[in-house]
Amino acid sequence: MLALFLALGSPLLVQAAAADTGYQLKAWTGCDNNASLTCTLSGIREDKSEITQFAKQLFTVTAQVSPADAGSITCEAMHIAYGEGTTCTVHPAAGYVVNFIRGCDSKDGLVCQLSGVTGNRNVTAELVKQQYSITAQVSSPYLGSLICETNRIGFGDSTTCTAAAEPGARFTGFGVDSVCAASATAAPETCVLENVTSDLAVFAHFEPYFSALTVPTVGEPATASASFTGGGADCRLDLSRTAFVAAPGSLPNGQTMPHGMLDFKLIGCNSTPVTVSIAWPNAVQGLTKWGKASIDATSPSYFQPSDLVVAGNTTTFTVQDGQLGDDDWATNGVIVDPVGATVPAALAQAVPVPTLGYLALALMGLIVAGLGLRGLHQR
Prior knowledge:
Layout: E1 12-15, E2 23-29, E3 33-35, E4 38-41, E5 51-56, E6 58-66, E7 71-75, E8 79-81, E9 86-92, E10 96-102, E11 106-108, E12 111-114, E13 121-129, E14 131-138, E15 144-148, E16 152-154, E17 159-165, E18 169-174, E19 190-193, E20 200-213, E21 223-230, E22 236-237, E23 243-245, E24 255-256, E25 261-267, E26 274-279, E27 286-291, E28 301-303, E29 306-311, E30 314-319, E31 335-344, H1 345-349, H2 358-378
Parallel strand pairs: 6-13, 14-20
Antiparallel strand pairs: 1-4, 2-5, 3-4, 6-8, 7-9, 9-12, 10-13, 11-12, 14-16, 15-17, 17-19, 18-20, 20-21, 21-26, 22-25, 23-25, 24-31, 25-31, 26-30, 27-28, 27-31, 29-30
Transmembrane segments: 356-376
Keywords: Membrane, Signal, Transmembrane, Transmembrane helix
Domain Bacterial repeat: 62-126, 151-207
């Protein structure tokens, strides 16, 4: 406190000392007039006192996120006194994660700590879409592939995966766990993933498949096809040894092979049974194999395959590596099996009886009826 002795009516001009670092003038009391740091006492006729009040400087905290719709950021205090601090917390919107936070003195996850503040501060948080993995899987790389546009995708985004069969195979569908969206414009081989919000796996199934023209006994060649399931994931066709061929010169007793035979070779098979389904150009009555009917057979012969089912133009049977039907009778991952669809010779040679049309039958009925009435009149 400063004490001064002045004559009655004397004016006095008092100027306050500069504020310490981090402080600023808050108010004067006891002045007749004050401006900024100046306090004026005038016309003094009695003892007077003046009080100068100082306060800590206040600084502003600004906080923002980028992009603006990716979340928010809140601070415990937006105005901080000199030397003090506050905490700001980032709140990402659904599907977003923090890429970085700038303007902090220290960080812990989503929390930004400001301490010992000596000026205005700006806290900025950059958020990015959460990324998810897209895993493409196939039943066998020998049979086909599955290509996705990307193996990493942002929250809520969409992508497609496309299956492609290798020669000697066909695509049969996506796995039940594959979250493929229905799309009117998507091909069956395309899996559309929409509004992705988690890691996803897409599984494409393939199977060995062969389609070609037959070599018929008579008439023109026609398309037939064969599909194969089982035998392990790597069981596949050797296309260099798979073809529709002509029927042998010697056929099973009383049977014909109007569509010739399918001579196929599977490789990479395990010991599990393989189901073979062949769609012939026309209806058939049976199917026979040509090969060794037993492991110690010295010559080939005709015999019926295992689990044979005939339905219209389709024949289905099973064959197993190293077992009956595998021509080499060796457990070596290779199945060789020539087969032919049969039709009884009598049925194949039968000549259809001509039939009368509906109008001709009706006319004949009228004639017969007329003759019958005439006979009654004659009686």
